[in-house]
Amino acid sequence: MPTANTKIGICGASGRMGRALIHAVVAREDVKLTAAIEREGNTLIGADAGEMAALPHMDISINSSLASQIDLVDVVIDFTTPAATIANVALCRQEGKGIVIGTTGLSEEQKHFLIEASHDIPIVYSGNFSVGVNVSLKLLELAAKAFGDTVDVDVLEAHHRYKVDAPSGTALMMGEAVASALGRDLKQVACFARSGHTGVRDRETIGFQTIRGGDIVGDHTVYFMGEGERVEIRHVATSRMNFANGAVRAAAWIGTKSAGLYDMRDVLGLK
Ligand SMILES: NC(=O)c1ccc[n+]([C@@H]2O[C@H](COP(=O)([O-])OP(=O)(O)OC[C@H]3O[C@@H](n4cnc5c(N)ncnc54)[C@H](OP(=O)(O)O)[C@@H]3O)[C@@H](O)[C@H]2O)c1
Questions:
Q1: Superfamily for the 6-129+240-267 domain
Q2: 63 Cβ closer than 6 Å to some ligand 1 atom
C-alpha cells in the first residue's frame, strides 16, 4: 500500500515532463507536491508551480536548490539531465530520501553511481515509466523465448525533434529484454547503424533505427522477422501523462521500500 500523503519534490519542474508530473501528482490523493526545483538561472524560478503548469495557485514557489527544500519532501522525482540527476542522487543519499529517476542518457559510470547509492536509499530508475511499455517488455521476453534464434530482431523508435539522445532509453530497454531472453549480451550484438555495403545480416545482431521529428511523443516497434511471417510488438505514447502517472505511482510505491535499485517492473509486480 502506498504511504498516505507522500510528499513529493519534482526536479526539472518546468520541463515537458515536469509539468506533466505536477498534473499527475495533483490527480492522486495519496501524494502531494511540496517542492518544485529548476536549474539555477531558469526564468521560472520564483513562479508558482501550479500556475506554471496551468493549474490553480499552489503556493509552492519554484526553487533553484534541492538542498534547501529537501526537508520538505519524502521522495524526489527527477526528470532533468544526467549531470543534474547525479547531483540530486548524491544529495538524496546524504539525506536518506528515496528518488524516482526518469532522466535518460546516463553513462555507464553514472549508472554505476546509482547502483552504489542504492545500497543506502531506495531508487526507482527506468528509461520508461509507462505501464504499457513495461507490459510490452514482458511480451517481448515471451516472443524472444518462443522464437529463439529463428528470427532477426530490429527495434524502430521515433521521437519529437527536441530529444537529444538516441536511441531512446526505451528502445535500449526493449533490445535488452530481447537480448537477455536470447542469452545474448546487448553490448556485443547491438547494431546502431547500417550504411553502404553492409553484407548479409548477421542473425545475432539486434538493430536499432531512429526517427526524430515533429511532436512525436514516443513510438516503439520491435520486429521479429522470420521465414514466411513477422511479428511486430508496438507501443505508441500519445501524451506524456502516461510517463508522468507511472513515475508518480512509483514515487508512492517507493515510500514503503527499503534501500535498493528498482525499476518500473518492480513497481508493477511484473518480475
Ligand atoms: N523515463 C521516462 O519515462 C521518460 C519519459 C519522458 C522523458 N524522459 C527523460 O526525462 C528527461 C527530461 O525530459 P523533458 O522532455 O522533460 O526535458 P526538458 O523539457 O528539457 O526538461 C528538463 C528540465 O530539467 C531542467 N533542469 C536542467 N538541469 C537542472 C538542474 N540542475 N536542476 C533542476 N532542473 C534542471 C531543465 O531546465 P532548463 O530548461 O532551464 O535547462 C528543464 O526544465 C530527459 O532525459 C528525457 O529523455 C524520460
A1: NAD(P)-binding Rossmann-like Domain (3.40.50.720)
A2: no
pTM listed for this prediction? 0.86
Tell me which residues are annotated as active site: 159, 163
Of ligand 1's listed atoms, the one at least distance from the Cα of 246 is 3
Q: Is the shortest distance between the CB of 9 and ligand 1 below 6 Å?
A: no
- Supply 105's cell numbers: 542518457
Evaluate if residue 4 carries a pLDDT over 70.
no
Counting from 1 in the atom list of ligand 1, the atom nearest the Cα of 42 is 40
Atom of ligand 1 nearest to the CA of 133: 3
Q: Torsions phi, psi of 30, nearest 5?
A: -95, 5
Q: 42 CB under 6 A from ligand 1?
A: yes
Q: Which amino acid is at 23?
A: H
Which one of 11, 16, 78, 79 would you pick to mutate in the ligand 1 pocket, going by the greatest count of ligand atoms within 8 A of its CB? 79
Summarised one tens digit per residue, pLDDT across range 233-270 is: 999 999 989 999 999 999 999 988 999 999 999 999 98
Query: Which cell numbers hold the place of 265?
Result: 517492473
Q: How far apart are the first and last CA of the chain?
A: 18
Residue with CA at minimum distance from ligand 1 atom 9: 103
Domain 131-237, second-level architecture: 2-Layer Sandwich (3.30)
Q: Where are the domains of the chain?
A: 6-129+240-267, 131-237
The torsion angle over the Cα atoms of residues 79, 112, 252 and 57, rounded to 10 degrees, is -20
pLDDT tens digits for range 38-57: 999 999 999 999 999 999 99
Task: Respond yes or no on whether the N-terminal peptide bond of residue 56 is cis (omega within 30° of 0).
Answer: no
pLDDT at 3 over 70: no
